[in-house]
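#struct-help
A.M.: can someone run this one for me? Single chain, 269 residues.
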Amino acid sequence: MSRVLITNDDGIAAPGLRALAQAAVAAGHEVVAAAPAEEASGASAALSAYTDDGRVMIGRHQLEGLPEVAAYGVAASPSYIVVLAMIEAFGAPPDLVLSGINRGANAGRAVLHSGTVGAAFTAAAHGCPAMAVSLDVLSDLVATAGGNALTVLDEADDAARNWPTAAALVRELLPGLADLPDGTVLNLNVPDRPPAEVLGLRQATLARFGQVQMGVAESGEGFIRTAVEENRTRADEGTDLAWLTDGYATLTAIRAVTELDGYQATREW
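D.P.: on it. Structure tokens below:
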């Protein structure tokens, strides 16, 4: 039995975190959940915390239906929370880190900005196998949007989303996490559909862009207001975004910052 840390960037009360914890418990692991007390989306791998007289504030929580799981809401970014776990702030350090299940796909090179993926990268940097898990709430809209920008995202009730679909795939993939190459993270994206409507699981490359992009909604003297829009460019075949849009779950092995072998400077210093 492994000790598993569950974290996310949507906050300790997010339904996706509870579904991920349930999957790890059902797989027979010892589970602790520690996540931001408030939403921290887009935090990447930032090591940030809100302190009171130098103290990072931590509150105990109870995850519905999981009385055996110790859960903590932390006034910090997801990556900071992973570091706290590694230095035994929540008991013994984890053997595995699962980050998610995020509300929205983390796909393409935009994973650079994801707090969900950033937490997994931080775990990998500490020698701990990790997987980032996300539920795609947008691809069905993208597929029917006819290329037009979406300035209003899906407003469906989060509790009614298909978190169990992603959780079931996590359980299938968990046994292989221990065999990941050092420093590698698995990035899993799953359509927001019942299991029978997911067409399969595909190993995918990263698309050149993210599923959504930032646009200027309004600007004026001394201010700018931004909005999130669906990216209008069709993803290349074989990429995570292309498979997601077609109804498949995707799995991509990724790495954080690493040196490039063989690079030579253009001049000697």
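A.M.: thanks! Helices lie at 15-26, 78-86, 115-125, 139-144, 163-173, 240-245.
D.P.: also worth noting: Confidence is low (pLDDT under 50) at residues 142-153.
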